[in-house]
Amino acid sequence: MDGIDHLADERNKAQFDVDAMKIVWAGSRHAFEVSDRISKLVAADPGFRKDNRPMLGRNELFKNTLRKAAYAWKRIIELHLSEEEAAKLRFYVDEPAYTDLHWGMFVPAIKGQGTEEQQQKWLPLAYKMQIIGCYGQTELGHGSNVQGLETTATFDPQTDEFVIHSPTLTSSKWWPGGLGKVSTHGVIYARLITDGRDHGVHGFIVQLRSLEDHSPLPGITVGDIGMKFGNGAYNTMDNGVLRFDHVRIPRDQMLMRVSQVTREGKYMQSDVPRQLVYGTMVYVRQTIVADASCALSRAVCIATRYSAVRRQFGSQDGGPESQVIDYKTQQNRLFPLLASAYAFRFVGEWLKWLYTDVTQRLQTNDFSTLPEAHACTAGLKSVTTTATADGIEECRKLCGGHGYLCTSGLPELFAVYVPACTYEGDNIVLLLQVARFLMKTVSQLGSGKKPVGTTSYMGQIEHLMQCRSNVQRAEDWLKPSAILEAFESRAARMSVACAQNLTKFTNPEEGFAELSADLVEAAVAHCQLIIVSKFIEKLLQDIPGKGVREQLEALCNIYALFLLHKHQGDFLSTGCITAKQASLANDQLRSLYSQVRPNAIALVDAFNYTDHFLGSILGCYDGNVYPKLYEAAWKDPLNDSVVPEGYHEYIRPLLKQNLRTARL
Ligand SMILES: CCCCC/C=C\C/C=C\C/C=C\C/C=C\C/C=C\CCCCC(=O)SCCNC(=O)CCNC(=O)[C@H](O)C(C)(C)COP(=O)(O)OP(=O)(O)OC[C@H]1O[C@@H](n2cnc3c(N)ncnc32)[C@H](O)[C@@H]1OP(=O)(O)O
Ligand SMILES: Cc1cc2nc3c(=O)[nH]c(=O)nc-3n(C[C@H](O)[C@H](O)[C@H](O)COP(=O)(O)OP(=O)(O)OC[C@H]3O[C@@H](n4cnc5c(N)ncnc54)[C@H](O)[C@@H]3O)c2cc1C
């Protein structure tokens, strides 16, 4: 606006190489270059404007999303973008759309659960967007309990078809994104019935709409489920309702990698575990962990820049007031979120590696790491999305009153993000899965079966059950070994305590239900240990760039010590640390905040977000917040006229009536 960088002084304070940190954040130089190029391309294109979203009515909003998705596809083709570049372009367009489900779930479901033949038939159509697909699992009556789904797929040997049917109101498909108004096809989950026998839930490719005029095919009732939380936000998505009235599909449209139905109607299972039917969810949970760091870093970038711009109190001798970022309370709320954004980035990278490793093993029929992959994706999805949703809301509060304006970008970001705590598995339901995995691991200790992967720390259970932290000075908390021992012993002791309590119940399932609140806490402790240990492992790698490692070490310590402070009840009650050591951790945390303070702006610049992507006046790169806020207010449609519409109908008569009353 005035061409001045109002945050220049802050940027000059940085003690590390920001460009090198950008590469660490992106994951590699290549990833940085792609991301940088595509984000600028999107930002410069008026076709991807998004600042008017909160003002639009649903129909207008939705049509605008359809236009953008079509335009994005046109640009992808025109520019010959690779798969990686196209995914980045959709990410930077930053508008939830049916394409998320098409590329994010429909295609992966066919890839993961379809046979070679099925993949060859359906994937080329999906890749060219000649068909558009959704993921139709959840029903009105059941979401978490997948085994409770009611839609049926009954094999008819006479015609070699499945008959898909919604027998009850609660069996109506409810929630699938892209289903409401767009998808031509869906991977639909239904109970497979052959010869009167129910074989449980399986996936089927079902055509829903005509490829000629988009009308629903015979027997199909489909529509949108209605407005969701927040203005704009996730209302760009057509989450749908769907009912089947004896819809027939050919037998070869059952996804048959895990199990098959023969021409004669015989049900056969491959040598692969039935849980592979849930494989798409494992894949998406892994991507959601990576996305948590994006959403949180975005909110943190806004709150950090604004905290450096905003001044309140503290003026001395007529000088400027204090920047709110210098208040210790502001730092204590903001810097752990900054550290969490980095921590989630690195654990997301690791989880991607783990997922790739499991997928490669599955190709060779090695299913040994599947339970670990399920527990890690479920647990980390839960812990990172909960922290991110809470963190975005905290960032809104960190921005004071202006954070509540849509132009801060934070209300919409929160409204879009918060369902991540529910979709792809309710966070509590997923933590209970982790708890089951932990209880199984504890029950096998001493059986000779060595715990592996993320539970390998349980291999030293005797030590972890009785060790005492040897921290004596605040600086001792900077040793990775001190942090790891505290987190490992806390997680181990919480799991063992649950396992011991479970033995008091004659019926294990009853015990599990009764102790579920404690089990969830044990699962959280285990997942936080994974995040801390993956951050520490990241620091063992070669990290080029002046001062970059030092900044990451400070952030890693802030992340760990803040968790230790927040959950000190766990650490103290299990006897892993003393009250004195907890207090020393807090002292160390304060000095880490002072270390990060001069680098805070540079640490959020390292995310390399364009102003377009941030979509926030408070977070704009140049920090010129006030003129921009002032100008934006006048652009609000309510200010199109000085005297509002409705004055003559509702304000004037009121004022006149009050005048008459006053005269009386
Ligand atoms: C301002 C604008 C901003 C714009 C954007 C800004 C920011 C956005 C940023 C990010 C966006 C975020 C992400 C984007 C990416 C994609 C998201 C897009 C859209 C959202 C899509 C959402 C789609 C859905 O929700 S699909 C539906 C998902 N449904 C669920 O998850 C259901 C959950 N339930 C279950 O998974 C299961 O029912 C269960 C709870 C696991 C229980 O299953 P059950 O069979 O009953 O099993 P049981 O407990 O008895 O266990 C048996 C046995 O199986 C093991 N098991 C279970 N599951 C699995 C598995 N998946 N894999 C492997 N093994 C599994 C279990 O451990 C047991 O093992 P064992 O017998 O004990 O050994
Ligand atoms: C924005 C959005 C997009 C979605 N997109 C899709 C999609 O594309 N495709 C699709 O198929 N689905 C989709 N879903 C559905 C989503 O996957 C489910 O809503 C989710 O899995 C949660 O299930 P539920 O709604 O049945 O919750 P419920 O299970 O009914 O949860 C209600 C409460 O009960 C608790 N609870 C449930 N079971 C237990 C238990 N065993 N122990 C303790 N507590 C329990 C939960 O913690 C929660 O507090 C979407 C949902 C949303 C919000």
From TrEMBL:
- What does the UniProt keyword field contain? FAD, Fatty acid metabolism, Flavoprotein, Lipid metabolism, Oxidoreductase, Peroxisome
- Provide the primary localization: other
Q: Which residues bind FAD?
A: 138, 177
Gene3D superfamilies per record = Acyl-CoA dehydrogenase/oxidase, N-terminal domain, Butyryl-CoA Dehydrogenase, subunit A, domain 2, Butyryl-CoA Dehydrogenase, subunit A, domain 3
Q: Taxonomically, which superkingdom?
A: Eukaryota
Q: Where is the Acyl-CoA oxidase C-terminal domain?
A: 480-656
The record's InterPro entries line, in alphabetical order, gives: ACOX_C_alpha1, Acyl-CoA_ox_N, Acyl-CoA_Oxase/DH_mid-dom_sf, Acyl-CoA_oxidase, Acyl-CoA_oxidase_C, AcylCo_DH-like_C, AcylCoA_DH/ox_N_sf, AcylCoA_DH/oxidase_NM_dom_sf
Q: Where would you find this protein in the cell? A: Peroxisome
Q: Where is the Acyl-CoA oxidase C-alpha1 domain?
A: 278-439
Extract one GO molecular function annotation from the record.
fatty acid binding
- Cofactor(s) demanded: FAD
Span of domain Acyl-coenzyme A oxidase N-terminal: 17-132
Annotated family = Belongs to the acyl-CoA oxidase family.
Name this protein carries in UniProt: Acyl-coenzyme A oxidase
Q: Which organism is it from?
A: Camellia sinensis var. sinensis
